Amino acid sequence: MQPIKRPFSSISISKPFWLWVAICLLVAVSTAALIGILQTTDAVRLEAQERFFEQYNQQQLTLAEQAAHSIEETFATFRRNLSLVASLFEEQGVTRERAERLSNSLQRMYESLMETDIIDLVVFDQGGTVVAISPSDDYTLGRNYAWRDYYQWARDKGKPGQMYLSPFMRLEGGQNRGDKALIVAQGIYGKQGQFSGVAMFTVNFDKLAKRQVLSVRIGEYGFAWLIDNNEQTVLVDPLGRVTDRGFEETFLPRWPKLYQLLVSMQDGKPGTSTYDFVDPADPDKAVSKLVGYQPVRIEDRLWTLGVATPAREVDALLSSFMQQQERYSGTLVVVIFTGTFILLSALLSWNHTLSIQVEHRTSDLAEARSRLESTFDELLVSKKLAAVGHLALGLAHEIRNPLSAIRMNIQMIRKRSKPEGRLEEHFTIVEEEILRLNRLVNDVMDFARARPLRLERTSLNPIIHRVMQLFSQRFKSAQITTELQLNDELTVVCDPEQIEQVILNLVSNAIESLEEVDGHRELSLIVRRHRPYLSLCVIDNGQGIPTADLDKIFDPFYTTKVSGGGLGLPTLQGIILRHQGTINADSAPGEKTSFTVLLPLEGPSEKSEPVK
Q1: Mean pLDDT, residues 443-463 taken together
Q2: Is the peptide bond between 256 and the residue preceding it cis, with omega within 30 degrees of 0?
Q3: Contact of 293 with 270, CB cutoff 8 Å
Q4: Is the residue at 241 inside a domain?
Q5: Quick one: DSSP state of residue 451?
Q6: SS3 of 534, please?
Q7: Does residue 386 have a pLDDT over 60?
Q8: 480: which strand partners?
């Protein structure tokens, strides 16, 4: 029996050693796996948080761009109507008798602008005396206001077409007493440039801020604020209150980072950032906020509009997407510890069982991360579509009313002046363009759902000549040499209105690029037949497009312009694709830029595919 006892004795002696080795290895592997899972989970969350915050800030920047554009369009409407008032008095001068003859026209113009927060329309003569006011005010009519800043500006500094914008002020009398207001004014000058008087609107800033700034909301506590960079004053503060306090007294003592951010906005560039401010849910506490801000340019004045949201609110949105991933991670941790306990009591199967569990749970974690990224991308697409809808509604609201006012006054001027010859032709072009712009508003609103094509066989030459005539004055003022290479026999089956929109926007983009360069400026438009297609090429020697941007210029909302919305080229691309054609860009910085459009000569076919 001795030979038998020795082997068993040997095994019993070595077993505790291997047991402890196995336990140490198991603990080490389990600990490493746990640390790796926790680190991976934290890394995924940090990466997701960083991307989510970045995209959310871009969303706020998009809202700020839309709101800033809406404000700029509102003041552009004021400038156009002031110019129209000035034109009524341009030939015969500003007198009480002339104002009485034009009283009905001035009243209709005031009524057409009531939705834009105008309080009154006032006309002053050369000496500063009020000769007309809508709505009627016997107290003000006939009084002299030559001491006012806007009158002295128009008399001493103003030029035809320039608009004066006053600093923030409070009304001291009338039914709007106590309201915050702004004055917009324009000088009236004779044909020789002599000063004749002043046309002025009083704007109710409380109502304008409520409609165009305070209405911008995102989330529960996310809203917009507005500052005047020139005066360094706060117009609408980050708590949603209309005020006129200075940067320093409002922010510097307690919120220096916000103060420095506002001061840095003097460069007039858009951007995103963070700052600390009063917690809207608890005024005794501070909260970190994400902000996207956009400049608002009105004549020579610079405002900045920001849209801000508490970081905790944004983080709460992210947390709902991270909960599923954290549940998988928690489950994986429990499984690992359970597996460790079981494997300690079963040495022979510990390595195999642990490997299977880690593999399965790691796969689950990867799947959870993939689902999170997919859900995150869907959220971004939804937000982008929502931004398009918001932009379309803003454009429809801000453009339709001014277009109606312009058309009404053009018809009135045309009826009274009874133009003939080329002047009649220009009036016809203006009315046609007003109608076309009104239709374009609907096209923007239908950006996500393309309207059916209205196809007809069309020669592009009349369309091109009309577009070039529309920009003729701009070509002259910018000293741009134009070249047309057209063939009278070329026709194509297309929707002429939508193709005119394509040509107009391509020429407008080329002009903007040329206006930013010095030296010789040249724009060429070439139409050729390349069966079975017709090619339209717009070429300019402007500043060019960086190579890195060529692949992005047709992406919605991507733009290098301060005031651009990023929908121009995507809209054109959609029109061309619905015609089953293509649009391509070829450019580089400092070289010529060409946009080439290919259209099927016989129009789109249900069976054919877009050109590759």
Answers
A1: 76
A2: no
A3: yes
A4: no
A5: P
A6: strand
A7: no
A8: 521
Report which DSSP code applies to 237. -
Question: 532-582 pLDDT, tens per residue?
Answer: 899 999 999 888 888 878 777 877 656 666 555 566 788 788 888 888 898
Q: State the angle between helix axes of 205-212 and 2-89 in degrees (0 to 180), rounded to the nearest 10.
A: 140
Q: Does residue 317 sit within a domain?
A: no
pTM over 0.70, yes/no:
no
Helical spans, DSSP H, in 256-349:
256-264, 311-344
C-alpha separations of 254 from 223, 278, 285 in Å: 21, 10, 12
CB 124 within 8 A of CB 149: no
Closest to 120 (Cα-Cα) out of 141, 144, 145: 141
All residues at 6 or more sequence positions from 428 whose CB lies less than 8 Å from its CB, including other chains: none
As a residue count, the chain comes to: 612
Minimal CA–CA distance to 87: which of 166, 200, 187, 201?
A: 187
3-state SS, residue 531: coil
Q: Is residue 564 part of a domain?
A: yes
Residue with the two structure tokens 């006309």? 123
Q: Which two tokens stand for residue 482?
A: 């134009």
Helix (H, G, I), strand (E, B) or coil at 491: strand
Rounded Cα distance, 301 and 540, in Å? 32
Return the pLDDT at 373: 62
The two tokens of residue 376 are 């995150």
Query: What's the domain range around 472?
Result: 450-600
Q: Which two tokens stand for residue 232?
A: 């360094």
Q: Is residue 467 part of a domain?
A: yes
Q: How far is 501 from 495, CA to CA, in rounded Å?
A: 10
Which pLDDT band, with edges at 50, 70 and 90, does 512 fall under? confident
Q: Residue 268 and residue 251: Cα distance in Å, rounded? A: 20
Structure tokens at 584: 């391509």
The radius of gyration of the chain from alpha carbons, rounded to an integer in Å, stands at 34
Q: How far is CA 6 from CA 17, 18, 247, in A?
A: 18, 19, 92
Helix axes 421-445, 350-417, angle to 10 degrees: 160
445 pLDDT exceeds 70? no
The token pair that represents 395 in the structure block: 């454009």
**pLDDT average, residue stretch 587-602:** 87
CATH of the domain at 540: 3.30.565.10
Number of domains in the chain: 1
Dihedrals phi, psi of 94, to nearest 5 degrees: -100, 105
At residue 533, what are phi and psi to the nearest 5 degrees? -125, 160
With beta carbons less than 8 A apart as the criterion, state whether 150 and 185 touch.
Answer: yes
Average pLDDT over residues 165-185: 80
Residues 313-355 pLDDT 10s = 887 776 765 565 556 556 666 666 576 657 656 655 655 665 6
Closest alpha carbon to 486 in 532, 530, 529, 521? 529
**How far is CA 277 from each of CA 33, 184, 220, 261, 464, rounded to the nearest angstrom?**
42, 33, 16, 12, 54
Task: State the residue for tokens 């079963």.
Answer: 346
